[in-house]
Amino acid sequence: MPDDISATVNEAVSETASIWQALGSSIPVEKILAAVLVLALCLLARRYLLMAFDRILRRMPRVAPELHSILRTVMRFLLLFLAVMIALNIIGVPISSFLAVFSVMGLALSLAVQGVLKNFAGGLIILASKPFTLGDYIESETVAGTVEEISLLYTRLTTPDGRAVYMPNDTLYSSRMINYTYSGTRRMELSIGVSYDNTPEQVRAAALEAVASLEGILSEPAPAVHLDSYGDSAIQYLIHAWVPATDYATLRFALNERIYDAFRRHGVEITYPHLNVHL
To answer: Taking residues 8-28, what's their average pLDDT?
Structure first.
């Protein structure tokens, strides 16, 4: 396959060179002047088209600034390529030869950098669809962390223990991903085992007192305490409280301490697995 592509490229280049040699001594001055004039007009029109393209992009708030720049660069080169092709056609150069060279070279290049192109496409999809933005805490199938940088080829995450992880965009957008900060709030869920000697009313009062004493926990949705299940040595309770997503870890650790203090004041026993042996 690579040999076939190389042979095709060489053939197209040779044909293009022979055409240039044939035209070198037979292009009328009038055609050259006409081509230069048309090229100048095309470049002027290109400038106004790019300005209109910028205005259209600015009216699309979901288009990320990074993607805006990329689309404008692509449009600029496409318009320049079109202007050159029009000028070459005026002086009598067969455009098909150039298109053949560019298409074959593009195919060869795409085969050589398949992985890079996949990551590039993934970066465009991420920038366009915005499943996450800078500062969001996300979790993929292999890693979780805060988004610090989104480029065309990779996304850089910082894990809670300070590691920098560079995730290929192809892997990130094509796999399952959870964005914990997308909505701005997050629900904490604490599971605590309490002795059978304590009533649900005691546990609920102590837990809600601990939640109310901690600043930063949201009042809506209201915190709640639920009896979840009956274990061998304890009754399992679930404590639910909504917090700002950015303060989740800090408030979770703080609430654990407040619950411990509140349970001691109310005489609520936090049990552990044990076995009673009767003789």
So the answer is: 54
pLDDT tens for 171-200 read 888 888 899 988 889 999 999 999 999 999
Question: How confident is the model over 78-101, as pLDDT tens digits?
Answer: 888 888 888 877 877 776 666 666
Cα dihedral 214, 217, 221, 227, rounded to 10, equals -50
Looking at residue 192, its amino acid is: I
Whether the per-residue pLDDT at 8 is higher than 60: the answer is no
3-class secondary structure per residue, the chain: CHHHHHHHHHHHHHHHHHHHHHHHCCCCHHHHHHHHHHHHHHHHHHHHHHHHHHHHHHCCCCCCHHHHHHHHHHHHHHHHHHHHHHHHHHCCCCHHHHHHHHHHHHHHHHHHCHHHHHHHHHHHHHHHHCCCCCCCEEECCCCEEEEEEECCCEEEEECCCCCEEEEEHHHHHHCCCEECCCCCEEEEEEEEEECCCCCHHHHHHHHHHHHHCCCCCCCCCCCEEEEEEECCCCEEEEEEEEEEHHHHHHHHHHHHHHHHHHHHHHCCCECCCCCCCCC
- Sheet with 224-230, strands from edge to edge, namely 185-194, 235-244, 224-230
Mean pLDDT of the chain: 81
* Across 197-225, average pLDDT: 93
* Residue 272 confidence (pLDDT) above 80: no
